[in-house]
# Entry
Amino acid sequence: MMNTRERVKNIFKNSNVDIDSIIIKNGHEQYIDTNFFYVTGISKGLFEDCCLVLFPDGTIHMIVTALESDIAKDADADIHIFQSRKEMENILKDILVNVNSIGVNESAILHSDYQWISTNFKEKKMENVIASFHKSRMIKEPDELRSIKKACGIADQVMDEISNYIKKNMTENELAAEIDYHLQKYGAQNPAFDTIASFGANTAMPHYTHDQSKLKEGDFILCDFGASFDKYNSDMTRTFVYGSASDKQKKIHETVRIAQQKAMMAIKPGIKANIVHQQAKSYIDSSSFKDCFIHSTGHSLGISVHDPGVGFYASCEELLKENMVITVEPGIYVQGYGGVRIE
# Structure
């Protein structure tokens, strides 16, 4: 079982600023800090407008609405229930009475909430602790690895069945719906992100999702999706051809496949993350598809699909360590023709 108090202690240990408390404040649904779930280990609920207060000894205070109080009981935390903004403010003042400094994750807090905290605690020093959360989340703990592996297994099961879902003249929307249905059928809480199911020339757009475009003979089919399990995510991409692949399609796919192998062979503890990206990019750029690889080779994966702190991109000089989880997903994109990505 996860020891959330040890996780909190580690967050303070990884802080590059001197603080004696941290506040994690959620906004409404689109502005929920994933660190709320990382810290508490809770895998259900939404926790809109709720708040955590953390202390260096591992103590966690959860300030929640009655709507979330039953789920909150699963956390190893002191639970406080509020009914109004003023009541939350009073609870916070009681908890923080002996505190001199407050850390906040400036990348995930609404400006209005930051202003609200700074106004109510003018006498306390405010510090940005984004780096502490990034450093803490880069190395996955055993329980995190188990959830990610489960999410990967679900996505892998669906990917193995893709050929069974594909039908002549089906739309991208229909294929995406089949994928999302089967992800949840096989145990995902929900798709990890908006599923990409693209056909033909649409596959040349890396972040394209899906529309009413119909499948035609000879089309590339690019499927990029993931499963979410206990809040942890997987992310997988494969590219197919409907019917017989042309020589050009085969060449693109083989180039991407070899680039991915070269990147994966470079991965080992102690090397800089950007070396892995260089291996994939240099191979593709040495082929006839120079400059057709237009994104990074990979991103960290965890409680966020794009977890913070480390990734396989040109400017990342973070040293790789055991139990980092990072995707490897080179691609080639030929505008007006199609693209291949393998992840």
